[in-house]
Design a protein that fits this description.
Number of helices: 14
Distance between the termini: 95 Å
Number of strands: 13
Radius of gyration: 26 Å
Strand content: 25-35%
Structural class: alpha/beta
Oligomer: single chain
Order of helices and strands: HEEHEHEEHHEHHHEHEEHEEEHHHHE
Helix content: 25-40%
Length: 395
């Protein structure tokens, strides 16, 4: 009886006690994006919090007029935590970080400081998630990138994340990098992180106003290259088709296309799907020997040269040409990454998985060992579709 009374008393106490951390909606601000940069001369971090503006919905519903969808508050500090807390001087509501959808890192910060100095605070603080995309502001300040009011998605964080997903699915030069994936790469001695870059195009005085969203030729954020790191610091960029080499070797390509020269002036286009790669790695005379085999299905999706696709030799010719184009592009990508000095492909991780004892000998200076690697690439492309039109136009 006493036990039942005690349990009943405990339940009633919990119900009457309420929630000590409870806050009304009008007491909090929802942070949708964060920007972080570094000022070397001041030796201070610069943090920008982009806050959702609920009055934008209220004014649109009640009067038909529009308000800016987000508000940006920024501050500096000797640490990221201090800068974030300094923001409280400018805001009347307590910031909630559980809905952050994007973190934008300044190019100066990525070059000056190791990513360890950036991500540590996110892992230690339970109020923010680490399964959110991270990106680097390239050639522009973080403020200019994240506070541009885009035409389709007026919240720039949503716009940028959508563009990453879109281009990774269709082009394959970029792939969404989550913060936890970057942290995992930092923690690994056999792989360096890769993080997408974003630039601002058509910038104007109205880029951070609603007027920008009402222009036909408005300013917009553009996904621009892949940042290559060494020891957690940004050391350069990989641009264009060679950037696909990272996605191909990591088996992340959903679909892409290659431009195939068919004469001295024109190119045909081939869509690639089911792109699969297999990497074998071993060490011989202190030099990594890396063999990469790539298989893919090809579909011709644009033809500018006269060709008879009813003949097997025509298809064979296109397959061989596509294989050479892919091989040269991957070779160029690997060469550029080797010159920059960081193993963005995770070859060290692959060696560890097959032979951890051997890898341990080179773990402390793997990036330098990777630069000496000899790489051989074989590509096999099988064309199984030439589209709905078999006969070319009489060019």
């Amino acid at each position: 009886m006493k036990k039942k009374f005690f349990i009943s008393f405990l339940i009633v106490s919990m119900l009457l006690g309420g929630c000590s951390n409870y806050k009304e909606l009008n007491q909090v601000s929802i942070v949708v994006a964060m920007g972080i940069d570094y000022f070397p001369k001041e030796k201070k971090y610069h943090v920008i919090t982009q806050i959702f503006n609920p009055s934008a919905i209220a004014t649109t519903t009640q009067s038909g007029s529009q308000a800016v969808p987000v508000i940006a508050l920024d501050e500096k500090g000797k640490t990221i935590s201090e800068a974030v807390r300094n923001v409280s001087k400018k805001g009347s509501r307590q910031n909630i970080y559980s809905h952050v959808a994007l973190v934008i890192i300044g190019e100066t910060l990525a070059k000056e400081k190791s990513l360890n100095y950036i991500f540590d605070v996110f892992e230690r603080d339970s109020k923010i998630r680490v399964n959110i995309p991270v990106i680097i502001a390239r050639n522009k300040s973080v403020d200019e990138i994240m506070n541009n009011i885009a035409a389709l998605d007026k919240i720039s964080a949503k716009s940028i994340v959508g563009k990453i997903k879109n281009t990774s699915a269709l082009l394959g030069e970029n792939q969404e990098t989550l913060m936890r994936e970057a942290i995992s790469a930092i923690s690994s001695s056999g792989r360096e992180p890769v993080i997408n870059g974003v630039s601002l195009e058509n910038e104007s005085e109205t880029s951070q106003t609603l007027e920008n969203a009402n222009k036909v030729t408005s300013s917009y954020d553009r996904i621009n290259g892949i940042g290559i790191f060494r020891d957690g610091k940004l050391v350069g960029w990989l641009d264009g088709p060679p950037a696909k080499s990272i996605q191909i070797i990591d088996n992340l390509i959903k679909e892409t296309n290659v431009q195939i020269p068919c004469n001295k002036k024109e190119y045909d286009s081939m869509e690639l799907t089911r792109v699969k790669s297999k990497t074998e790695i071993k060490i011989k005379d202190n030099i990594p020997i890396i063999n990469i085999k790539i298989n893919s299905i090809g579909h011709l999706d644009e033809v500018f040269c006269n060709a008879n696709f009813d003949k097997a030799k025509t298809l064979n010719k296109y397959e061989k040409t596509a294989e050479n184009v892919i091989k040269q592009s991957i070779e160029k990508g690997i060469s550029e990454v080797k010159n920059l000095g960081g193993d963005a492909f995770g070859f060290g991780e692959k060696l560890y998985m097959v032979n951890p004892k051997i890898y341990k000998k080179y773990e402390s200076n793997w990036n330098d060992t990777f630069k000496k690697a000899k790489v051989t690439i074989s590509v096999d492309v099988q064309i199984n579709d030439v589209g709905m039109r078999r006969k070319t136009y009489p060019y």
